[in-house]
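Q: Focus on the shape:
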Amino acid sequence: MSAVAVELTESVDITELAKVYREVHAADLHLTDHSEPTVEQRLVWTAEAPGFAATVAYVDGRLAGAVMGCPLPPETLWWRGLDGPVTQEWTGRTFAICEAFVLPEHRRHRLGVPMIRELCGSRTEERVSVAVSESNARVWRALQATGFAHVGDLVPFPGWRPHRMLVCPLPLEGRR
């Protein structure tokens, strides 16, 4: 049996995370949403954001995945392309999960949802949001089962595939 550890952290190794990210998304690295901005740029932007936090998972001592995020500021572009009350931000309203990935060989350990729960368990915001590529049905189903609701679709950056925007009230306790 494998030893699994999930750790909450405010500091990450960008080089190590980028290596795992590239393994996770090897088949899609040619797509714009995995190359522009670069993986390293995206990871650094998230890690340097005010209020940054992450959970990292290790299986038998090897990095197997991560979930990274930060609070959205009132002037965020997170919701660009969507309208309505869901897009209105104020300090303390939304924690955004900006990156989430698990190595394929460790998905059977079901690390994604526990990493999200661990990360969100420390948050004081009213809700959590995540953007999921509309082609990622596995993650979409897992998040819906956890209580995330679909609030609209948008293209996060020019040239990217459409993403489903999901929101869930915090805390996540009591959710599957």
In short: The two ends are 24 Å apart (CA to CA). The chain has one domain: 4-169. The chain has four helices and seven strands.
